[in-house]
Structure to design on (262 residues):
């Protein structure tokens, strides 16, 4: 606890305390994952004394016809939704997007969503394990039982005005950086490099997370070096202000941190 400011940044520590504020996951979906929603901070605090969950996905690999379920097709009323739940027809309300590598999806809390089969993606999210399952697509386990659903909890958490998708695709030139997701909980940039790049974080009072999404690279600092391969993640403490990224020979990486928003 004494050194948390050195690790995450004083501003981040003052806001979040000893709990690290982000979770990073690498998800491979062999089948459709459950349809779900996450509460916002206010509701999560009231119900669970915890944070809500806003998250983003960066698509690394996508098989043919791989899809993401995200938001409603149109603005939907609570009554329409509950009627669809009763008739086990919620899927008919949900907007679906085809996926390609490099696609980005932002899922604010309250947005109904599901990861489809045939995807490998990076998930960046608030530190929270609160998930309300809406549908598991009628699947049964080996004993013939379905997974627990959280219909009542989910209904109060859903943003019924969240329609279409928040999908984007980063257009980036080599040896440049592009912002691909921005919200109050995290900032994510995509970088593509084929030569050494010096980084200076004097203006950012936050840890930095690098996630290798193509190729590999070395992080070099103070005569030290660490190789980061495809799918690996490295946490840079807030006290390390200057470093060099050296691709071997080319790499794409996500750069994640928390902005100081006064």
């Amino acid at each position: 606890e004494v050194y948390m400011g050195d690790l995450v940044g004083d501003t981040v520590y003052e806001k979040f305390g000893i709990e690290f504020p982000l979770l990073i996951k690498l998800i491979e979906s062999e089948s459709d994952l459950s349809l779900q929603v996450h509460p916002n901070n206010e509701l999560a605090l009231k119900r669970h004394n915890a944070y809500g969950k806003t998250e983003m996905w960066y698509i690394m690999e996508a098989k043919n016809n791989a899809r993401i379920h995200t938001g409603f097709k149109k603005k939907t009323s609570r009554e329409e939704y509950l009627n669809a739940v009763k008739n086990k027809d919620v899927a008919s309300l949900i907007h679906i997007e085809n996926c390609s590598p490099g696609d980005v999806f932002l899922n604010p809390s309250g947005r109904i969503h599901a990861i489809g089969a045939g995807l490998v993606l990076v998930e960046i999210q608030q530190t929270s394990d609160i998930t309300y399952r809406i549908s598991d697509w009628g699947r049964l386990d080996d004993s013939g039982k379905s997974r627990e659903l959280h219909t009542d909890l989910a209904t109060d958490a859903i943003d019924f005005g969240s329609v279409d998708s928040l999908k984007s695709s980063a257009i980036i030139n080599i040896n440049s950086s592009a912002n691909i997701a921005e919200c109050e909980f995290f900032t994510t940039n995509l970088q593509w490099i084929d030569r050494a790049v010096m980084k200076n974080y004097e203006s950012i009072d936050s840890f930095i997370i690098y996630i290798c999404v193509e190729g590999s690279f070395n992080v070099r600092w103070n005569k030290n070096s660490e190789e980061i391969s495809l799918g690996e993640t490295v946490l840079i403490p807030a006290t390390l202000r200057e470093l060099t990224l050296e691709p071997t020979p080319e790499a794409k990486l996500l750069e994640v941190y928390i902005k100081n928003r006064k």
In short: The two ends are 24 Å apart (CA to CA). Residues 78-86 form the longest helix (9 residues). Residues 28 and 232 are 14 Å apart (CA to CA).
